[in-house]
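In the design runs reported in the main text, the only information available to the sequence generator was the tokenized backbone. The following block is the verbatim input for one such run; it is reproduced so that readers can re-run the procedure and compare outputs position by position.
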């Protein structure tokens, strides 16, 4: 079997998930990766055969998206051109982790595909949303990377096609400890902004994961560390707590490890606001932004009770089996449709 796996590289979570998933997919056949986007900070150790700048998300320095830079990098002409040239029709199975060019290519070439990943879970109305829905956010989640069928991932199984988060093997095999530090990853803020708030708690050691730092070094109560998947995971396994955005992979792993978790969603990113709504159900405190009350909020969080621990109802192997079952049923339906078309044409020309 030839498998085309489209991976969105606008953040680190999609790539981290792909690294865990691909060895399981390779049991079923050859896997070729299409990497789309250019602002992940992780080393890409994947079987990448096709690559594109795609549609990337860029962040400002104070917690929000940089819409000007996003618009500047966007080229609709190139997206359409790349979609037409992407050879999705040469594969037995197309798996799409929220990637728009692959979605368009499958529409143009009438190739069935499976939308796989966290964003796919929002195809269900049962998946948590904030009290105030954003019509544009809903439109993007539902139409940015549409597919034939969906396999969603979320903190809980809100619907029948939604499964557990894919947790890294390093986390699954870990023996968590509390060495007193707090692991911090807030890529939507600059280091300088984050440090100004962390310095307000001089007796607390923070591991701050930075897009700028290339080596580990300490200044005051902050140990600056480069963004590295294994390094961050090791820090989190031994942390007293984790402060991060309201993404999916990192909060899921922190909940699985039963670490105290504090989330600061990216301003204007509707998916993160939806995740924040789900995280509140686990008892996770959500901060709208970094503000003058930050030190008091962190102290209250550290002194408060732990949130509910996340338990996996499905392991990675089972999720991939479900994916393959979905693919098999999809291809059966496609063959039935093709046969119907042939029968219809034969009747028409008799």
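Verbatim output:
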């Amino acid at each position: 079997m030839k498998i085309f796996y489209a991976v969105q590289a606008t953040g680190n979570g999609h790539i981290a998930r792909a690294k865990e998933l691909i060895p399981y997919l390779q049991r079923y056949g050859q896997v070729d990766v299409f990497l789309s986007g250019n602002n992940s900070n992780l080393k890409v150790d994947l079987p990448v055969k096709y690559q594109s700048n795609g549609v990337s998300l860029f962040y400002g320095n104070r917690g929000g998206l940089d819409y000007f830079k996003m618009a500047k990098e966007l080229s609709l002409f190139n997206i359409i051109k790349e979609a037409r040239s992407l050879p999705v029709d040469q594969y037995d199975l197309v798996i799409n982790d929220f990637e728009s060019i692959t979605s368009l290519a499958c529409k143009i070439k009438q190739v069935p595909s499976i939308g796989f990943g966290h964003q796919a879970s929002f195809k269900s109305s049962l998946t948590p949303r904030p009290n105030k829905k954003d019509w544009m956010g809903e439109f993007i989640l539902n139409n940015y990377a549409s597919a034939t069928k969906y396999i969603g991932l979320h903190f809980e199984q809100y619907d029948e096609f939604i499964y557990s988060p894919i947790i890294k093997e390093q986390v699954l095999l870990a023996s968590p400890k509390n060495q007193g530090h707090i692991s911090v990853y807030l890529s939507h803020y600059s280091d300088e902004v984050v440090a100004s708030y962390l310095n307000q708690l001089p007796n607390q050691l923070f591991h701050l994961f930075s897009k700028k730092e290339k080596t580990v070094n300490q200044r005051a109560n902050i140990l600056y560390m480069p963004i590295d998947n294994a390094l961050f995971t090791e820090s989190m396994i031994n942390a007293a707590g984790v402060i991060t955005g309201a993404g999916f992979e990192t909060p899921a792993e922190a909940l699985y490890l039963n670490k105290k978790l504090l989330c600061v969603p990216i301003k204007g990113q509707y998916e993160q606001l939806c995740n924040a709504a789900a995280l509140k159900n686990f008892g996770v405190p959500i901060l709208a932004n970094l503000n003058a009350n930050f030190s008091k909020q962190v102290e209250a969080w550290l002194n408060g009770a732990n949130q509910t621990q996340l338990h996996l109802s499905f392991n990675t192997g089972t999720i991939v089996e479900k994916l393959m079952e979905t693919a098999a049923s999809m291809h059966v339906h496609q063959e039935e449709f093709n046969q119907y078309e042939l029968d219809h044409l034969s009747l028409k020309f008799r």
